[in-house]
Amino acid sequence: MEHLIEKFRQFIKQKGLKYTPEREEILREILSLEDHFDVESLYLQLKKKNSKISKASIYRTLPLLVEGGYIQEVYKQGGHSHYEVTLNKQPHLHFICIQCGEVKEALDHRLNNLIEEFERQSKYRFLTYHLEIFGLCPNCREV
Ligand SMILES: [Zn+2]
Ligand SMILES: [Zn+2]
Q1: Ligand 1 ion: Cβ-proximal residues, 5 Å cutoff
Q2: Which of 12, 126, 136, 140 has the most CB atoms in a 10 Å sphere around its CB?
Q3: Distance 125 CA to ligand 1 centre (A)
């Protein structure tokens, strides 16, 4: 974890921005998260730990974390973005229910093999990907 923090510090300085304890606290919290998050859930999580981080500084810091490759925007819902930590996470599918907003993740090595094949063919070097499938979850399709 510490080398990630150090890399982030350098990244912020390279951009000519000020490295603040708030930014570091946000990054540490995010790196400890397993699940998807959005600004609201991250804010509540920090608040539970008696943090004084404001929503505004979360809004300012998330784009930097995306740019630095720590997190990625995985889907938008109700007009706001959800994120997940990119590091140490296998690329996976997201099934998103358009009715209730439930999100399920799915991993399948056949899919990963296919993407690797695309990578060879395209001569790109893929860094990460995410796939979204929209539909109705088992509960919502009943109606
Ligand atoms: Zn649903
Ligand atoms: Zn995910």
Answers
A1: 97, 99-100, 102, 137, 140
A2: 12
A3: 36
pTM metric for this prediction: 0.74
pLDDT digits (tens, 9 = 90+) for 32-60: 887 889 999 999 999 999 999 999 999 99
pLDDT, tens digit (0-9, with 9 covering 90-100), for 116-127: 999 999 999 887
Q: If DSSP states are collapsed to H, E and C, what string results for the chain?
A: CHHHHHHHHHHHHHCCCCCCHHHHHHHHHHHCCCCCECHHHHHHHHHHCCCCCCHHHHHHHHHHHHHCCCEEEEEEECCEEEEEECCCCCCCEEEEECCCCCEEEECCHHHHHHHHHHHHHHCCCCCCCCEEEEECCHHHHCC
Ligand 1 centroid vs 63 CA: distance in angstroms?
29
CA–centroid distance, residue 109 to ligand 1 (Å): 26
CATH 1.10.10.10 applies to domain 1-87: yes
What residue ranges do the domains of the chain occupy? 1-87, 90-143
**Which protein residues have a CB closer than 5 Å to ligand 2 (ion)?**
84, 105
Q: What confidence score (pLDDT) does residue 88 get?
A: 65
Which ligand is closest in space to the CA of residue 35? 2
